[in-house]
């Protein structure tokens, strides 16, 4: 166990994987490609495995390389957390902050908020990914998941950062053509534009109303996995949608969309979800506090 891989070589290896190039990594670090290649070769020698397939233009991971990369990322993150727990970075966030959220909320709300956060804390390296699929935060190495609605795994911490709900709405042209539903069950006979989201069963709408929760299975000629497309189809008059208030508030004010069954809604609060190991992380704490304030003051979302 005396011949363990050096931390610096693992960090260099992760940089090569991120860039998929020795030359790009050397340029980033201000070193020579030969130096980068030598350090990777020494790391492979210590581990007794081949980590990368090398070609003249780029590199790619071997199967063993994928395993080492996952562990190296985890080890480097743990080292960052160790330093953060005993240094001034308890109050000064720094290091990598990997965040995931849905595409619509990410583009319209989270991206501009993080732009301001990056100016306030230049030592943070913020990586934002917009995905609609379910994500295993720990396995995929994310620090924060900003979720609109949905449940969480028991090994994750959930902190509400803003209140939000989904409401039913449609364009006036659609309602003139098909009429206004009188009760939830009527939605089954209407054209509903269904979206496949991370936290929703496809084609099943559960709505909170005066008599409690009512469930209806809906369908229609159009469906999509992208909320912004579904939103636009509704404005175009193709059917009824169930969308977050932060997303359709402007269209409701301008009359492009009209509330349907206004006494019904679906709770979809906005939450920050993070692993237990990041409970004392300054970068996570600062980001969550900033988002709470930003969404209240600039994001048109109540806290």
TrEMBL record:
Family: Belongs to the LysR transcriptional regulatory family.
Key words of the record: DNA-binding, Transcription, Transcription regulation
Pfam families named among the record's database cross-references: HTH_1, LysR_substrate
Alphabetical list of CDD domains matching this protein: PBP2_CrgA_like_9 (cd08479)
Gene Ontology BP terms: DNA-templated transcription
Transcription regulation in keyword set: yes
InterPro entries for the chain: LysR-type_TF_proteobact-type, LysR_HTH_N, LysR_subst-bd, WH-like_DNA-bd_sf, WH_DNA-bd_sf
PANTHER family: HTH-TYPE TRANSCRIPTIONAL ACTIVATOR TTDR-RELATED (PTHR30537:SF5), HTH-TYPE TRANSCRIPTIONAL REGULATOR (PTHR30537)
GO MF term (any one): DNA-binding transcription factor activity
Residue ranges constituting the HTH lysR-type domain according to the UniProt record: 5-62
Protein name, per record: LysR family transcriptional regulator
């Amino acid at each position: 166990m005396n011949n363990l891989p050096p931390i610096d070589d693992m960090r260099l290896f992760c940089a090569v994987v991120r860039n998929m190039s020795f030359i790009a990594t050397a340029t980033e670090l201000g070193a020579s490609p030969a130096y980068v290649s030598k350090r990777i070769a020494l790391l492979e020698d210590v581990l007794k495995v081949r980590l990368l397939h090398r070609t003249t233009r780029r590199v790619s991971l071997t199967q063993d390389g994928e395993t080492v990369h996952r562990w190296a990322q985890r080890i480097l993150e743990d080292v960052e957390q160790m330093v953060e727990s005993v240094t001034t970075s308890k109050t000064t966030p720094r290091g990598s902050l990997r965040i995931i959220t849905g595409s619509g909320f990410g583009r319209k709300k989270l991206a501009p908020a993080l732009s301001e956060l990056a100016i306030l804390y230049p030592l943070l390296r913020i990586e934002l990914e917009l995905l609609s699929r379910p994500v295993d935060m720990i396995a995929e190495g994310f620090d924060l998941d900003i979720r609109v609605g949905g449940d969480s795994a028991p090994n994750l911490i959930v902190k509400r950062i803003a209140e939000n709900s989904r409401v039913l709405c449609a364009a006036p042209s659609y309602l003139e053509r098909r009429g206004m539903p009188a009760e939830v069950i009527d939605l089954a006979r209407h054209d509903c534009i269904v979206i496949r989201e991370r936290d929703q069963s496809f084609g099943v709408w559960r709505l909170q109303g005066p008599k409690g929760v009512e469930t209806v299975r809906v369908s229609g000629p159009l469906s999509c996995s992208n909320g912004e497309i579904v939103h636009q189809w509704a404005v175009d008059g193709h059917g009824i949608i169930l969308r977050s208030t932060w997303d359709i508030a402007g269209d409701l004010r301008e009359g492009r969309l009209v509330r349907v069954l206004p006494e019904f809604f679906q709770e979809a609060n906005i939450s920050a979800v993070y692993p237990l190991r990041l409970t004392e992380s300054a970068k996570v704490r600062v980001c969550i506090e900033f988002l709470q304030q930003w969404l209240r003051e600039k994001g048109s979302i109540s806290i």
